[in-house]
Amino acid sequence: MSREADEIHMAHALRLAARGLGTTWPNPSVGCVLVRDGRILGRGWTQPGGRPHAERVALAAAGDATGATAYVTLEPCAHHGKTSPCAEALVAAGVARVVTALTDPDPRVAGRGHAILRTAGIAVTEGILADEARRVTAGFLKRVTQGLPLVTLKLATTLDGRIATATGESRWITGPDARRMVHAMRMMHDAVMVGSGTAAADDPDLTVRDMGSPHQPVRIVLDSRLAHSPDSRLGRSAKDHPVWLVHGPDAPGPARTAWEATGARLIEAPPAADGRTDPEAALRALAGRGLTRIFCEGGAGLAARLIRQGLADDLAVFHAGTLIGAEGTAALGPLGLAALADAPRFTLRETRQIGADTLSLWSA
Ligand code: AOF
Ligand code: ZN
Q1: What CATH code is carried by the domain that includes residue 42?
Q2: What is the distance in A from the centroid of ligand 2 to the CA of 294?
Q3: CA 242 / ligand 1 centre spacing (Å)
């Protein structure tokens, strides 16, 4: 098979993997396509909750995959979970060749999947569209290799980077199409996160609405003293969709009890020197509970702390065609920069028009 044909089928597998984003944590979202004589026999992607794995779904769809080539965005697993390893399932199915994009850094796999295939006499080609696969798999890769989730920071601002007027009016700066896009982006993340200031000011719901999908990301507030009211929208809906609160050791007992009664999950993390939630400690605690992709929707203080500490991987910036001026609230709190050379830099990946607004996507 030519490299070009391999890339076409791997691109297909990557599009399948993208469908599972937000729903497979703690597992990666993997895509798999089975091809024989140029014909697609079966396709699959990791199912909600992380199982069954993509290869199982594709093999089941194919029925007979003898002699096929399997395109998989991540090395097939080598460990025994609820079922036998995918590498063994591919061997048993009689596939002739396996093409992968990435090695799985999970210590239970880490090259063993490829080895099982080669030992069984299957031809293995690695590294096809690896850069693209790294983007789709970034959350899982970061969780396993660094103990942190991928963080996408959303900023929705005026052309001059403001998110509220001097009187605190902030609804709505961007238009309905941009807001709908935000719901689509929430859906592709495991969790949506805000700081306690934003939770208090907006009483947000943070759910995905009108997307025709039952999937709801975990809703997280970084709230060192558990100041957010349990009688808020989040508190009242915590039994329907998960709410996790990350707090410090000084959170008062009555607030803990009241929040626990709502059905929310409380996560204690060590605070920063100023007594506020330390975003890195919070993110480590969240990755430790399996989250791989977090969509942060503000506010300005949390956004700035994430940027300062190099914890924001991607920026999703919506701009509305309006201006507020210097008396408005800036989208980012202080970054404490001394020199322009120290200013964090991001690389532009994509710009789009969304209704009357623009969206630009940037990566660290
Ligand atoms: C695959 N195909 O679609 C996925 C894989 O907890 P388990 O037993 O489901 O295993 C999770 C691990 O399996 C995960 O950490 C990663 O190494 C791999 N994920 N592997 O062959 C898939 N999602
Ligand atoms: Zn597997």
Answers
A1: 3.40.140.10
A2: 24
A3: 23
How far does the chain reach from its first CA to its final CA, in angstroms?
A: 36
Structural domain boundaries, residue 103: 3-141
H or E stretch covering 61? helix 54-62
Q: Which of 23, 29, 53 to mutate to test the pocket of ligand 1 (most atoms within 8 A of CB)?
A: 53
Nearest CA to ligand 1 atom 8: 81
What DSSP assignment string belongs to 105-119?
-STTTTTHHHHHHHH
Q: Whose CA is nearest to atom 22 of ligand 1?
A: 53
Instruction: Report the 10 Å Cβ neighbour count for 216.
Output: 20
- Is the separation of the CB atoms in 139 and 313 below 8 Å? no
Same domain, 175 and 323: yes
Distance between CA atoms of residues 324 and 330, nearest Å? 10
The strand order across the sheet containing 31-36 reads 39-45, 31-36, 69-72, 97-100, 123-125
Any residues with Cβ below 6 Å from ligand 1, and which?
27-28, 30, 46, 50-51, 53-55, 74, 76-77, 81, 86, 104, 106, 109
Look up the pTM and report it.
Answer: 0.95
Chain segment 299-331, per-residue pLDDT in tens: 999 999 999 999 999 999 999 999 999 999 999
Segment 72-81, tens digit of pLDDT: 999 999 988 7
Q: Are residues 74 and 56 in the same domain?
A: yes
